[in-house]
Known about the structure:
A: 271 residues; mainly alpha; globular; B: Rossmann fold; CATH 2.40.50.140; 2 domains; elongated
Amino acid sequence: xxxxxxxxxxxxxxxxxxxxxxxxxxxxxxxxxxxxxxxxxxxxxxxxxxxxxxxxxxxxxxxxxxxxxxxxxxxxxxxxxxxxxxxxxxxxxxxxxxxxxxxxxxxxxxxxxxxxxxxxxxxxxxxxxxxxxxxxxxxxxxxxxxxxxxxxxxxxxxxxxxxxxxxxxxxxxxxxxxxxxxxxxxxxxxxxxxxxxxxxxxxxxxxxxxxxxxxxxxxxxxxxxxxxxxxxxxxxxxxxxxxxxxxxxxxxxxxxxxxxxxxxxxxxxxx
Amino acid sequence: xxxxxxxxxxxxxxxxxxxxxxxxxxxxxxxxxxxxxxxxxxxxxxxxxxxxxxxxxxxxxxxxxxxxxxxxxxxxxxxxxxxxxxxxxxxxxxxxxxxxxxxxxxxxxxxxxxxxxxxxxxxxxxxxxxxxxxxxxxxxxxxxxxxxxxxxxxxxxxxxxxxxxxxxxxxxxxxxxxxxxxxxxxxxxxxxxxxxxxxxxxxxxxxxxxxxxxxxxxxxxxxxxxxxxxxxxxxxxxxxxxxxxxxxxxxxxxxxxxxxxxxxxxxxxxxxxxxxxxxxxxxxxxxxxxxxxxxxxxxxxxxxxxxxxxxxxxxxxxxxxxxxxxxxxxxxxxxxxxxxxxxxxxxxxxxxxxxxxx
Amino acid sequence: xxxxxxxxxxxxxxxxxxxxxxxxxxxxxxxxxxxxxxxxxxxxxxxxxxxxxxxxxxxxxxxxxxxxxxxxxxxxxxxxxxxxxxxxxxxxxxxxxxxxxxxxxxxxxxxxxxxxxxxxxxxxxxxxxxxxxxxxxxxxxxxxxxxxxxxxxxxxxxxxxxxxxxxxxxxxxxxxxxxxxxxxxxxxxxxxxxxxxxxxxxxxxxxxxxxxxxxxxxxxxxxxxxxxxxxxxxxxxxxxxxxxxxxxxxxxxxxxxxxxxxxxxxxxxxxxxxxxxxxxxxxxxxxxxxxxxxxxxxxx
Lengths: 271, 358, 300
């Protein structure tokens, strides 16, 4: 886009903008880096700068109450929600981009509404509903709650993917004799990979991390990782959550970097 | 009085040298075209003059004053972009007014100037429309008006007629030339279309590989090019590999493919020298009968004829398998009644033979 | 990109509306049925519940009543919390915009490799757990945390400054959370502007500031709108961030609604509060869009 040479004069405005931008990025990264440092602190308190270094808080993660079963539930719910929602989203986004029917704009807004809807609203509405039909506090009700929350994300990335896709490719396949289904499976679907992968990833991560909806839908043995971590933070003051946070960020970084390297998901999430 | 001077301009981009020691001197009010294939550096030259690129060495002088180091907004250049770059959120009038506003021009006078220049391009009736509602040709004229209203020292046009269809292009060629002469503004046009360059410019600079290969008036450049690639780019050419057979007092005798033999006046060659002889397709005529071994003729058979509307292109294959092209008017060709495979001879007009080194 | 009327690209000659659109219906059916049962019905039911009396009220009766809403609007506490939530959301939107727009502008200027790295950082920020991110601020803002260590070291104060569990902490957390949601739409709309527009402005004499205010910014309003609306909606409905970084005296509306449900078990009242929040947010967003469209001729 820009062909300008570095020896062209840069105005004050541009300098200020760059400065603010770098400060803002620093602001974005700063807490994460600090948390990582604190997680290695040998002492019991969150203090800075740390005096001694130790990995003990990483080992202590295992001591968080119910962390094992909570993480298992979170992973299973997130996986199931992401898979099911991505599958549902494929059909919906195909319908929206390939067909014309009245009320399409309204439908699209409706399907994307969970993103801006207050999570507490969704939580309250769902727990009332499940109590009413007698299915509250089960793994399935939790799954349904998470599905409602995350289905909008694969829809959004798939809509972007489908709009950017070249429709001539499918037509070429059809003209060469492929059935509509075959053409979709062998030509369209591979093209949608970035949209599918990024939609799946976001659905998974947002479900995995969710607190407000989960907190309304769980009770007793049914609990999620964020809930247990949050409980731990409210009741303890040691740096164990710092160790947990650092691990979490590392894992997320690896997953997203791999997805970007392989599928170039970044460009598909910029509308 | 010089309008623009480029002195030893060298530009490196991304580690590669794009412009090699470019020198150019343009008179005030002159219109020069930078013509060349993609990648020859013509757009880079334009952007260096405009100030978007800073050359690693050399000087750019406008009306005698160096403008190296000046950012684009401090140079008084009028730029018409390839995509016109009209501001979509402003009306036509606001677009044209923009440069005047930046110069804090008196508001009342600006209004009159905007109207005047839009009238000049016959678009004063769309003053309050948005660019999206205009046709391509109209948008280009607005872009022109916008660049001209600020009374620039230099007008820079980037592929001005590329996006227009044939008819519009012919019309705009005339209008553009008239406007340029009327306002007397020093103009540089960047294009890869030789017809655009030859018809619009006072002088054409043909560029290859980051340098100006040759510069001259359109007619001179076309009829008497000094370099073979200039000849080839401008209108195409046939090239014959010839040998100097003998050197005589009245000239040099060359021999070439298909029995080609000609006596030329050039005295700078020795026996045994290899030269390239170039001739344009329209400077070849066909002989079907008579002396097949006439001076300055190639013998061969008709390989193919291609209909091109105003011209027929006839391809001749020599005994050695080389192919040469002649452009003949359809009427002349009808009179000759040549058929595929027939033996003919192509006569090269001696006056238009160009001799190049191998 | 114009892909043409999809219906016209079909190979059938059927003119009946149903046969042309049957495919869409079947593709949408599973999702729509799912959302109908588990999204629309619960919401409608919740709205209905908000018009009933709850066990805690002195009046009883099975009929519909505005009692919960009257309670919501007349409660001074809720009024304060609402005003506070609104104020903090506006503040968050403003600060986030001021920080995010420069990031978007910077991304345009960077070389591709660095640009991808920064974009990845923003994505990872988005994908990192909210609890993780807020905890990071707990670490920074705690009495013994990094910021106070700096303040003490620089001698700005003799004792640690109480930053945690306050409105300031919440706003910081909300801004941190919202930056990716603001940067991406703005960056997207900046990408769609051809570079030649900015260059045209410069060639006509506009400096960097003028080019930005007269050309770049007005044309980026759709992206700015998208980012600000999203940030506003997310801030208004924030729950986890004020829970972790705030205190009862700085609570936000979602917390009050949740409290009614979780501790008081007062469904109707909680429902009324949250419905009020949703409707108010929607009204503000609609008004905002109208203003942008009418006054600025923006394409939102």
